[in-house]
Amino acid sequence: MGPGDLKQTIISLVPCDDRVLVGFENSDDASVYRLNDEEAMVQTLDFITPVVDDPYLYGKIAAANSLSDVFAMGADVKTALNIVGYDRKNHGTTDALREMLRGGNEKIQECGGLLMGGHTIESPEMYYGLSVTGLVHPKKILRNNTAKIGHVLVLTKPLGMGILTTAIKRDLISDSARNEAIKVMEALNYLPSKILREYDVSACTDITGFGLLGHALESVGPFNSFAIHCGIVPVIKEAEELRAQGIVPGGTKRNMKYLEDKTTIMCPTDKCYEMYCDAQTSGGLLIAMDPEDAKEYVKRVEDLTFGYATIMGEVIPRGVSPIMIY
Fold this sequence. Notes:
With 326 residues, this protein is an alpha+beta fold. It has helices at residues 3-10, 55-72, 88-91, 95-110, 161-169, 175-186, 190-196, 211-219, 237-244, 250-259, 271-276, 291-300, and strands at 20-22, 31-34, 40-48, 76-85, 114-121, 127-136, 152-155, 201-206, 224-228, 263-265, 285-289, 310-317, 323-325. Helix 2 (55-72) runs parallel beside helix 4 (95-110) and helix 8 crosses helix 10.
């Protein structure tokens, strides 16, 4: 579902309780519920349909995608529950199911979490994900919409996953590009999030189905804009080549339509717009942070992000639109 339709669907369900520190009225990455003065519970849920054929790799990617929302809030994962749609009639033996869950559990364990069970239903369309619970100090929550003017924008993973996974499904991708996409998607945002907490960070979110610009839009306030530098945003090279051939997923096209009147393109070409709207799976962290801290942070996470982490914009006073591409 696109960001506009989703917002209209859930707007009447916002909870009213002073223990709710983060609800869903501002489209943050996860909810936060205060337990006491020292602890707050972070909760999120996400699942996806297969993006690769290998069930083990699909399980790892789907779990990484689900866990990421907790890391985006500056929290640590504690427990997770499996959410599975699977049907032996359509999907064969349970061997694939076993491999999928094995891959997911490895990612849960990688960040110190515990798998506590889950729920499986028979479904003609396979899907897998997690309901995740984490903990954070109530005063150390990272929000998505609190970016300070003067801070720079850092992105920790490259764009292009929507285009690449579409190409995988159509068998239009090289083995090297497929492997690169899988490597990026299965990588947890866990350690980049832990290191991030040592710096002056004003906002953080992760990039998933609404694309870079969609999640950036959710993160701007009434008095600031996100200025993004065309050509500096990290993109997997083959994704750009496939985009030029018209290999673009439906979710990306929905994002483009929704964002067209909220984005000002000031660069010589508008080709970047399509890529920056690309619907991601298990994307990177988008961080607003102090400029000097950002330089050090990007160096520290270079190996963890396969060299993709980049300072690719800044938070500026409100311009002609919430998002501006130079």
